[in-house]
Specification:
Low-confidence stretches: 1-20, 28-36, 44-52
Radius of gyration: 27 Å
Mean pLDDT: 90
Distance between the termini: 54 Å
Shape: globular
Largest sheet: 7 strands, mixed
Number of helices: 19
Length: about 750
């Protein structure tokens, strides 16, 4: 278990000095010893051999800051170190950022992490960093001030810091490098240390480039698939194409004749109780000296697969089952109930209903999973881009019997995640293969593997009913959903991937019901960027537009009416609630930017949608038209309030990318089942948004806020699909209720 972010400073902060006098400050359990951390070769010196926690300051005033979360394109390697550097009060140009490995440690037999939580794929990560990483920098600065005060015999309150130096009123100055050894010998401050006033920020809020951007552009950035260990073999796996299926027979004679192939290993299927966060597919691993030989060997395999209990599973059958459940008298699992919807239905002057359908989706990361594992009697090394290394560490320990203190996990940059790298199945495969091989292995996935053996976004069908009073105000709301539960052993409730009990309009309608019907499916489902919210938002925000059209109300005005007066509507899950003023401001600005009230007579239509998630607020608006069978997106506007923006350059890029990904996910792709198998095997049948169909640019408008930061990438994704569907209706009068939008639109035109 990671040490909670609100633990006292003495529980999770420690200081230490390196042999060269470097000051090191980071998270640790009280009394724990620092464990060695590998340094990049260009940082090794005669005296300095290891790097401990977050901050290291050398005598020459060089500053090295460690990034704790795995960088998968979300900007963690920039934002986190910016927070530390700001409070430390150093020039960003003097900072070198390195990626930290997993920081597991034990104190008095209790597990912890010297860096705090390293889980990078949840909604709380941004707020957690805002508190913990600023505090780490502030404590380092306080120790340096105290060291200078002792040398000069001056009150610490009379000193200040500036650009890596401590200054007194008389103009004297000492560099941090000169103070590092003395500062490291001081005890931790007993009281809370002061953090900077936001008015004094010099790094936070300034556009900042990715520290390793040059390495990425020049091809020097290393991923797990680039790593090589002495004696290592490369493995690729032929996995059973039937979810839940098993291997019946195998003819591997041709494979073993291929030059470079060293071994063929059978992997047990899901019947074995692996200590992993999701079921593994049965498979056959080919180990070879090169990736090419391994791929050739896999192509030559002749396996016979047993489909298992879901041989006839299909997407069509799942949708039919969902429709049957939603049409039955049984209500399903009650997720939320406010007031008396049945009574509201009897009293209603108008009643409207609609049904929306969302398919399975793959994460479709551009870099397929890969992992390097080296198992030894005395320990293990894992090199993999995982967003929850704590889960990975527990899994490796369970599979190998090694103590977690003996397992080193390095976190290279990952080529995308969207929730995929929260699962550790690809690492589990590598551990099992390495255990058999007796030497280091690198397991490589192909894109076909990545699509067919993913933990997909759940498939769901949403049935919505609204009742309206005599003034055409929404008085009652019922939301029933039939969907495939997450089966990634996450411990979340069955409806987690499809419904959120606190999503708008919950809490805004007096008579509200929400129910869930679980669909049995062989396809593994798991975390997928803002999963429940991307599903719910499409249904809810499309339905609100349909209501507005039917009762001849302006869609923006109807939403504002539902928000009501400025207030905070409490959430049942305790996530801070819904601030109506912030949501209304985002929606109004988005409407203004898209020129909502301007009449259009050129065949173009405008659609808008908004959503609140994890303490942030977003609205999208699109202007579209049809050119024959081609959809044109003329303008894309996003207005977003995601709390305080740490790095505007990265923030705008993240929001733009989320918008484009939202368009792509809404328009074309779907994972479909037929005869118990995933039909999509590559980019030809899992279509992403072509550049010709993408908007020329995404107009991102940030609303300044002092609230805690929110993960903008997930937040910005949610309102894209409904805003696009609403725009398509405005330009074509065709209401599309089924994703992906494009094939359904062309069918209906």
């Amino acid at each position: 278990m990671d040490i909670p972010h609100d633990a006292s400073r003495r529980r999770f902060l420690r200081i230490a000095a390196t042999g060269s006098g470097a000051l090191v400050v980071g998270f640790a359990a009280a009394g724990a010893r620092a464990q060695p951390e590998s340094l990049p070769l260009d940082l090794l010196g005669d005296e300095l051999m290891r790097l401990g926690p977050f901050v290291m300051i050398e005598r020459d005033n060089r500053v090295v800051i460690g990034s704790r979360a795995c960088e998968v394109g979300q900007g963690a390697k920039t934002r986190g170190p910016m927070l530390v550097a700001e409070e430390l009060d150093v020039d960003w140009a003097r900072v070198r950022v390195i990626q930290l490995g997993y920081g597991y440690r034990e104190t008095d037999g209790q597990p912890g992490n010297r860096y705090g939580s390293q889980r990078g794929g949840d909604s709380a990560a941004a707020a957690r960093d805002w508190i913990e990483l600023r505090e780490a920098g502030a404590i380092a600065r306080t120790l340096l001030l105290s060291a200078a005060a002792s040398i000069w015999q001056r009150p610490v309150e009379s000193l200040r810091t500036e650009s890596g130096h401590v200054l007194d009123a008389g103009g004297r100055r000492l560099s941090y490098g000169a103070l590092a050894r003395s500062a490291a010998a001081l005890p931790l401050p007993g009281d809370a240390v002061a953090r900077k006033d936001p008015a004094d920020f010099r790094i936070i809020g300034k556009p900042t480039r990715t520290p390793d951007a040059a390495d990425i552009v020049r091809g020097r950035s290393r991923h797990a698939g680039d790593e090589f260990l002495t004696g290592m073999l490369v493995a690729v796996v032929a996995r059973c194409p039937h979810p839940g299926g098993t291997l019946e027979q195998l003819d591997d004679s041709e494979t073993r004749r291929i030059d470079g192939v060293r071994d063929v290993v059978r992997l047990d299927g899901p019947g074995t109780r692996f200590a992993v966060d999701a079921p593994l597919a049965a498979g056959v691993a080919v180990l070879a000296e090169t990736t090419w030989a391994a791929l050739q060997g896999r192509a030559a395999l002749q396996p016979t697969w047993l489909p298992g209990p879901a041989a006839d599973a299909s997407s069509a059958a799942l949708v039919a089952r969902a429709d049957a459940l939603l049409g039955a008298a049984e209500a399903g699992i009650e997720v939320r109930r406010d007031g008396d919807f049945a009574g509201s239905r009897k009293r209603a002057r108008h009643q409207l209903s609609a049904r929306y359908e969302l398919p399975f989706l793959a994460h479709a990361t551009l870099e397929a999973p890969a992992a390097v594992v080296d198992l030894r009697e005395d320990g293990a090394l894992v090199i993999a881009a995982v967003e929850d290394p704590d889960v990975t560490s527990r899994m490796v320990a369970a599979l190998t019997g090694l103590a977690r203190t003996r397992i080193e996990i390095r976190l290279p940059r990952g080529g995308g995640s969207f929730g995929r790298r929260l699962a550790s199945d690809f690492v589990a495969e590598a551990v099992l293969i390495a255990r058999h091989a007796g030497k280091p292995v690198r397991v490589m996935w192909t894109e076909s593997d990545n699509l067919a053996h993913d933990f997909h976004r759940p498939m769901s069908v949403h049935a919505l009913v609204a009742t309206l009073d005599r003034r055409n105000r929404i008085a009652g709301w019922k939301h029933a959903c039939a969907g495939t539960p997450r089966n990634d052993r996450s411990g979340h409730p069955a409806w987690d991937g499809c419904l959120d009990a606190d999503a708008f309009p919950a809490g805004f309608v007096g008579h509200f019901e929400q129910h869930f019907h679980a669909l049995e499916s062989p396809l593994p489902c798991g975390a997928w960027r803002a999963t429940a919210d991307t599903a719910q938002a499409f249904a809810i925000q499309s339905f609100i537009d349909e209501i507005a059209f039917e009762v001849r109300r302006d869609a923006v005005e109807l939403r504002l009416e539902m928000f009501g007066e400025p207030r905070t509507v409490a959430a049942t899950a305790g996530n801070g609630g819904f601030d109506t003023a912030r949501m209304a401001e985002v929606l109004k600005r988005c409407a203004e930017r898209i020129h909502w009230n301007t009449r259009r007579s050129d065949g173009r239509g405008v659609g808008i949608a908004c959503h609140a998630w994890a303490g942030g607020y977003v609205a999208h608006a699109f202007e579209t038209s049809m050119d024959g069978e081609r959809l044109r997106i003329h303008r894309a506007v996003c207005v977003i309030d995601a709390g305080r923006v740490i790095n505007p350059l990265g923030f705008d890029a993240e929001v733009s990318a989320a918008t484009v990904d939202g368009l792509s996910s809404a328009l074309h792709p779907a994972i479909t089942l037929k005869d118990g198998q995933v039909r999509q095997r590559g980019w030809r049948d899992y279509r992403l948004l072509p550049m010709a169909q993408a908007p020329a640019r995404v107009e991102v408008h940030r609303i300044e806020s002092d609230a805690e930061p929110v993960a903008a990438g997930d937040l910005a994704f949610n309102s894209v699909a409904p805003a696009l569907a609403n725009a398509i209706f405005a330009s074509t009068t065709v209401r599309v209720r089924k994703l992906p939008l494009m094939p359904e639109l062309l069918r209906m035109l």
